[in-house]
Amino acid sequence: MGSTGSIGVNTLNVIETNSELYEVFALTAKSQVDKLFKQCVKFQPAFAVMLDSAAAVQLKNKLLDAGSTTEVLQGMEGLTFVAGHEQSDCVMAAIVGGAGLLPTLRAAEAGKKVLLANKEALVMAGRLFMQLAEQSGAQIIPIDSEHNAIFQCLPIDEQAKFANQNRQGVEKIILTASGGPFLNSSLTDLQQVTPEQACKHPNWSMGPKISVDSATMLNKALELIEASFLFDLPVEHIEILIHPQSVIHSMVYYRDGSVLAQLGNPDMRTPIAYGLSWPNRIAAGVKTLNLCEVGQLNFQAADADRFPCLALGRAAALAQGSAPIILNAANEVAVAAFLKGEIGFTQIPVIIEESLNVLEYKALDSIEEVLEEDNKARSLAQKLIFG
């Protein structure tokens, strides 16, 4: 799910490298017809899904002209259909933003091996998502480089059973962050940041929305919430550390003084390959890490003035209930407006903070309530931006 994005493209690259092990059952995208068409011709999936209905019609016509037997579906109904289909056993959940929530939940409900690259499923509905996975027996394997690193650093039985209150001596976890493209920029310079500048990440190749989240460090706030649900740890036991080289992807501190870290070149094919093959390992096509070439590894605390989204994320994580939903929804609206040139870079955390201050936090017991709060937060953020 999300095959035309950065994670999707890298996943197909790993599958192609290991074509004797995997077969593509379905590919989905939002609206990139030409890109999905080329992927369908190459991998010949049984189904292709376009979230946009007009794009689905275009894709269907192109595939018919090419003599392809791939069946084209559309909309959220098509996404949830392939996510829970009995003929698939592994689902890469790589749709960006809240749009990925329902199909990712469907994959968990259907007991799939879910490779979770969509942070928002846990940010918006973490408790409900983990309950569904436990009830269905779904395997949830994190694909974000940070959470995948933690997953690799936990004992093997802890990996097999996430919802274990006894963390086998885990004291805390560290989520590393590159600091993005503006780590050393002055606060004055941040007022003038353009979308093009914000999307130029120093280490990772990502889509525009995730790149902006990395620049504001809101992505790290979402990862903190995600990690709390994934690894069943209180937010107070999760820390964020700036590590500009992006070589150590995250660390686990144990009570005996041991610190386990997962290292590697900044290439998403590594966590993708580990997620696909777990508990085994397969070739990912990634260059081997050369520590002599890296030379040194640096670390520093995150600057609260430069990255106000971190404090907003931690506050939302502690508040729980609908607070993380408001955080995520307001950010998605604000980032979209920034990418269109409608607001400035430094207005993104302002919109998020105002949304969190205005809306009442609620405990949520159903997906319907989650979606209702999400819509409220998006409407408010739109109003704050456009009046």
Task: State the gist of this model.
The chain has 387 residues and is of the alpha/beta class. 49% of the residues lie in helices and 13% in strands. The chain is built from 18 helices and ten strands.
Write a structural description.
49% of the residues lie in helices and 13% in strands. The longest helix is centred in the last third of the chain and has 20 residues, at 367-386. It has 387 residues and is of the alpha/beta class. It has three domains: 6-142, NAD(P)-binding Rossmann-like Domain (Rossmann fold, 3-Layer(aba) Sandwich), CATH 3.40.50.720; 145-308, no CATH class; 321-387, RNA polymerase sigma factor, region 2, helix turn helix motif (Rna Polymerase Sigma Factor, Chain: A, Orthogonal Bundle), CATH 1.10.1740.10. It has a four-stranded mixed sheet with strand order 8-7-9-10, with helices on one face. The chain has 18 helices and ten strands. It is globular and about 55 Å long. The model is unreliable at 162-166 (pLDDT under 50).
